[in-house]
Design a protein that fits this description.
The protein is mainly beta. It has a single domain, classed as Jelly Rolls. It has one helix and ten strands, in the order E-E-E-E-E-E-E-E-E-E-H. It has one helix at 97-100, and strands spanning 2-7, 12-18, 23-29, 34-38, 43-50, 52-57, 60-65, 69-72, 78-82, 86-93. A hairpin with a 4-residue loop joins strand 1 and strand 2 (12-18). It is globular and about 30 Å long. It comes from Pyrobaculum aerophilum (strain ATCC 51768 / DSM 7523 / JCM 9630 / CIP 104966 / NBRC 100827 / IM2). Residues 27-92 form the Cupin type-2 domain. InterPro entries: Bacilysin_H2HPP_isomerase, Cupin_2, KdgF, RmlC-like_jellyroll, RmlC_Cupin_sf.
Amino acid sequence: MSWRWEKLSDCVERRYISGENVTVAQFILKEGCVVQRHSHPNEQITVVLQGLLEFDLGGRRLTAAAGDVVHIPPGVEHEVKAITDAVVIDVFSPPRSDWARGQDSYLRKN
């Protein structure tokens, strides 16, 4: 677990911390960045702090701007594109044990 910034690719930076029941992450996404389609067993709540994002949630597209909150149920395939530079907070439950094991390659392919 870490609260230091990690540069995952040319367009994604992340820092996160995990507790017993939750992981909280902050992401910085550059304009045009795409977080590749993936799914995970964790429930996810995304709070957009800055910018504009386009989500594909199981084939349903939606746009989220600063102040918007997006819910992603466990197991739903999703992809995110940064329409502008963006900053988000993501909350996951249960904690992201896959990240702790280094299994986050979908974040590194942009």
